[in-house]
Amino acid sequence: MLYQHGADLFAEDKSGMTPLHMACKNGCLDVIQFLLSKGAAVDEAAIAGRTPLLYVTFCGQDECEVYPFAPIFAPCPYVDPGGHEISRLEVAKSLLDHGANINAATADGQTVLHGAAQLGDTELMRFLVEHGANVRAIAANGDTPLHDAARQPSIEAVHYLIEQGANAHAVTTEGETVVHAACAMAGCGINNPAILAPIAQIVGTFLDLGVDVNARDATGSTVLHLLSTEVFNLMLRKGADRLAANNEGETMLELIEKDKEWDWDAEGFLKVK
C-alpha cells in the first residue's frame, strides 16, 4: 500500500539500512521477494558492513546468549513479525538468485558462513558451501567458520566443514585454536551433559587431526584450563601437560586443588568429588 502511494523502496536510514536490510533482519520473506523484484540493491552494505545476506544469520545478542548450543536450546529463532518461523535457507536462496555476493563480509570480516556456523545450521551451511562460500574464510580476529561450529558445539557442522577443506590448524589473533574454541562453553558457565558430550567428541576429532594439545592462547591458557572432567581427561590421554601454567602462573594441579568439586582418581585422572 505504501509503495502504491509513492513510498521509496530504496530509502536508507542513518545507519545505511534499507527496507531490504530490515526485511532480511526480520525474516519477512514475502517482502524480501517483492523488494528484489523491484530492483532493490542486493549487496548494499549497512551498519558494520552488513549486506542483506549477512542479516540472514545475524542475531544481535551477546555471544553467550546466542550462538552456542542452538541445536539444543534454539535461542535465535528466525521469525517474521507475525511469529511464523522462516527458513534462513529460503531467504538466502532468494538473495543469491538475485546475485548476492556469498562471500561478502562485515567490517570485522564475518561472512554468512561464519553466521551459519555460529547458529549450527548445517543445512544452510551445506547450501552456502555448494554455492561457493569459502570454508576457510578468516575474520579480522582470525575466527574461521570451523571455530564457530566448534563453539556451537555442532559435531555435524564441524565434520562437514572439515570434509570441505576447513583448516583445523587455524589460530585466532588471540591464539585460540579450534580446540580452545570447542571448550569455550566453560566461559559461559555451561555444565550440561547434553552439551559436554558433543564437545568431547569434537575435541577428539581435532586431536586426531593433529591439533596441538598444549597450544596456548593469549592468556597463556592451554585448553586444560577451560575444561569439564570428561574433556580434561581426554586431553590428558592425548598428551596434554597438566603442569602447564597460564599467564597468572597457575597450573591445572593448583587450580584443581582450589576447586571444591574436582579431585584426582587413583589413575591420575580428574573426577567429580
Summary of the model, kept short:
Pfam families: Ank_2 (PF12796). With 273 residues, the protein is an all-alpha fold.
The helix content is: 25-40%
Largest sheet: 2 strands, antiparallel
Query: How many helices?
Result: 12
Strand content: under 5%
First CA to last CA: what distance? 66 Å
What characteristic shape results from the CA principal axes?
A: elongated
Which class do the helix and strand fractions yield? mainly alpha
Strand order of the largest sheet: 1-2
Radius of gyration using CA atoms only:
21 Å
Average pLDDT taken over every residue: 80
Order of helices and strands: HHHHHHHHHHHHEE
Q: Low-confidence spans: pLDDT under 50, at least 5 residues?
A: 61-75, 269-273
Number of extended strands: 2
